[in-house]
Amino acid sequence: MVGITSYGAYIPRMRLDRMSIFQAMGWFAPAIMVVAQGERSMCYWDEDSLTMGVSAAQDCLKGMDKNKLDGAYFASTTFPYADRQNAGIIKAALNLKDEIISADFTGSIRAGASAVLAGINAVASGERSNVLVAAADKRETRPAYFYEMWYGDGAGALSLGKENVIAEYLGSHTVTYDFVDHYRGGLNRFDYVWEERWARDEGYSKIYPEAINGLLKKLNLSAKDVSKFAFPCIFKAEYKGIAKAIGAKPDQMVDNKHEVCGECGTAHSLIMFISALEDAKPGDIIVMAAFGQGCDAMAFKVTEEILKLAPRNGFAGCIASKKIIDNYNKFLVWRQLITPEMGIRAEAPTQTAMSTLWRKRKMILGLVGGKCKECGTPQFPRQDICVNPDCGAHHSQEDYEFSHRTSYIKTFTGDLLSVSVDPPNKYGLIQFEGGGRYMCDFTDCDHEELKVGLPMKMMFRRRYVDKERGFTNYFWKATPDRPKMAELAKIRFDGRVAVITGAGGGLGRVYALELAKRGCKVVVNDLGGSRDGSGGGDATPAQKVVDEIKALGGEAVANYDNVATKQGGENIIKTALDTFGTVDILINNAGILRDKSFLKMEPENWKAVLDVHLNGAYFVTKPAFEIMREKGFGRIIMTSSAAGLYGNFGQTNYSAAKMALVGLMNTLKLEGNKYNIKVNTLAPIAASRLTEDIMPPDIFAKMKPEFVSPLVLYLASEDCKATGHIYNAGMGYFNRAAFVTGPGVQLGDPANPPSIEDIADSWADINDLDGGKELNDATAALMDLATPKAPKEDKPKAAAPAAGGGGGGGANVAPIFDAMPAHFKPDAAAGVDVVFQYNISGPGGGDWFVVIKDSACKVEKGQHEKPTATLQLSDEDCMNMFTGKLNPMTAFTSGKLVIKGDVMKTQIIEKVFEPPK
Q1: In CATH, what number is assigned to the domain containing residue 211?
Q2: Is residue 809, in this structure, part of any structural domain at all?
């Protein structure tokens, strides 16, 4: 079986907001507004097609033995070298073996697909066993051009072979035509482009269907047999037309990625194909095609091996990690489309000695240092004498690669005096895991995020370009390892021990699994009884959760004691001590339900519910609290309920028990405070066996415990300093609940107690919660009660809500227009003479017009006779747009905002009004 054995991708972290292009150049090229949505990927100043190709290849080779590669192909239309093999540089950067064939593919934006076909044919013929194919482009355009909007920078890589094939090659079909939609002469920097209609109607719409339909016919397939079609087409509307021509449905078409990165030239067919592979399942057929002086189309069938592929960043990982740039001038400087003065410091000699580059090629291009065979100490650069002072062996070094190793910042600086197009110039000393250090440049980062100990990864980048001789010098730089930074920033529970009652299912199970994933040792307690607590116990639920945790590599032990007894509570904590030596976290989660209306509530049902919820929390918390007090640390979480906080029909026993837990917390927070024991209460709304027949099925399905557990884990962490708080959580929504006490009202005096009539006369003041506050303990509550509130001025009373509550829908936008003149910037409106009519639909809407003239602003309600432009949108969308929740361009392109009249003049609005705060 011949096919794809791995994949990798690289999209630069920097993304240029396309709207920033329009905002800077829309005055000159207003038509580019129609494609100004989303972001286009942009290289950092020291990136080019070759550096991106290296990064994509590194991602592709994760988990693979690169020594098995015997072919390396590189495709691009923007090679840094016209007469120095670029694939050879990639081979050196990856430190591949010397016995390998390398080749450059260029001359057409389908060169990436052509390189893949060449690699497949080499493997199928037996000439090669494993071939790496990388494709990358950093295409240049003149400023303020449609293609500047359409294009993006990026790279993709595939490895091809016969072993561990994740996508079997089924066949291909190629058509070749000298169809010229664009070209670039050998001495030209920019493409010359023929009109888009020509490319669309005679090129894409005819050549793609011919090649793809030819492939399907050759393989005896129909379009419905294909899971995904992946082929670039910058014309979004035409993409749909091509789909129709090949018989594909919209859900079979891979998105063209315009909004997230743009089209990446020779790499884009690979990038779209890789994005399809990331979501593919065994048996899926994916068709990849690429346009350019004809078309290459090929089909692959995904195999079971894809499930075994080592994790990689891929396209999805690249897209998720981004930094939005809205500084168009920065883009222009980095692309050398404008040339700022760099000063005499930039005039340093840049000639590279080819003899030195050859002799030190492994060190310079491959970042290969040495490792002492005597003591195992790594060092960079490789030397004749071991750097270890306790060793000092001579000529003991063997090759040791540093390019894939994590390092950490030891020292750093931001140098404003040295030359940089992204000042300050950032560099410092890094220390590699396992040993080895060197002083290097930092790239693709902000000075503010650098700090000692920050994890870094190595990136192959341009060091400088010798323009006089046309030579690009490459070396390795360090950049923040953001995935590792995110991992280090995660709240961990390593070394902690948690006890969770009722953890055999539902919320408790999720708490246990999530804590274990973050390094916590867990006691999984569950009696295994029925929902109402009747019947005998069952060890299965608790043991099943323990088995799940152990399968994930965690540590856990099961406990089957009943929380409702003193002995049971003590045994649960004893299990933690006997197995793990201590207890740090206690989550009182066990519970049962026996719902009946109050008059039908039998004493045994009342007692059973209080025994599990309230007494159970007491019996387990008491021995745990003693251990926590001795060690000076503890986190205790009670589980209350909305029924306890607010009441619920038919649950008097449950409500009483749940509210009692809040009282237990209120005192424990005081007794545990000086021992760093934090006690909080959660009122979860989540799907469990206790709620499955109480809630409507559609609501029940949305209430996954995973939407509650993050709050519980935070309350259980060292990071949490809150204590004595109550939190509601459910469906991803969180808020805090609290007892608020209104100001005291003094009636009567020591000699004359108030009468019932005094109470009646002051009833409104007694009920008034204005100025209410939380109180920390009973003493504070007593003192606050005895502190009467100051008399207040009469104020108009709000109209009482209609019976049944409920408001009238929609957002009242009138205050927005009332406030507009206060946010007007007269200095920015010099020479502006416009009238903007706003027609806002919905119950909170209306009609307003804004007149801007002579550096003044006037807003009036109603319709203007001759508006410059009319903006139509709903009251909710208007509110969201003016408060910054809805981007105006997004509103416009999505159809939420309809503009009639002079569309271009509406861009003035953002310039003459202060942004929302």
Answers
A1: 3.40.47.10
A2: no
Q: What is the DSSP letter of 804?
A: T
Task: Tell me whether residue 716 is in a domain.
Answer: yes
In terms of Cα–Cα distance, which of 235, 220, 279, 272 is closest to 110? Answer: 272
**Start-end of H helices in 451-529:** 482-489, 506-517
Length of the chain (residues): 917
State both tokens at 812.
């009242």
Is pLDDT above 70 for 532? no
Structure tokens at 752: 């004359």
Please tell me the chain's helix, strand, coil percentages from 3-state DSSP, rounded to the nearest 5.
Answer: 35, 25, 40
Buried/exposed code over 489-499 (b: 16+ C-beta within 10 A; e: otherwise): eeeebeebbbb
What DSSP element (H or E) covers 172? strand 167-176
CA atoms within 13 A on the CB side of 845: 15
Residue 216, Cβ density class (10 Å: 0-12 exposed, 13-18 middle, ≥19 buried) = buried
Identify the sign of the CA torsion 746, 750, 754, 758. negative
Predicted structure pTM score: 0.71
State how many domains the chain has: 5
> Is 624:616 a contact under the CB 8 Å cutoff?
no
Query: Which residues are within 8 A (CB) of 867 and not within 5 positions of it... i.e. 6 or more apart?
Result: 835, 836, 837, 849, 901
426-430, 690-694, 739-743, 840-844: range with highest mean pLDDT: 426-430
**Catalytic residue numbers, as ranges:** 654
Domain of 367? 363-487
Please name the residue ranges forming H helices in 822-887: 875-882
Q: Residue 571 in contact with residue 560, Cβ under 8 Å? A: no
* DSSP string for residues in 634-675: EEEEEE--HHHHH--TTBHHHHHHHHHHHHHHHHHHHHHGGG
b/e code 411-423 from CB counts within 10 Å (16+ = b):
ebebeeeeebebe
pLDDT of residue 237: 82
SS (H, E, C) 411-455: EEEEECCCCCCCCCEEEEEEEECCCCEEEEEECCCCHHHCCCCCE
Hey, is 708 helix, strand or coil?
coil
- pLDDT tens-digit readout, 442-492: 999 999 999 999 999 999 999 999 988 999 999 999 999 998 888 888 899
- Check if the beta carbon of residue 138 is closer than 8 Å to that of residue 461: no
Distance CA 726, CA 306 (A): 46
- 470 and 538 fall within a common domain: no
How far is Cα 128 from Cα 160, in angstroms, rounded to an integer? Answer: 10
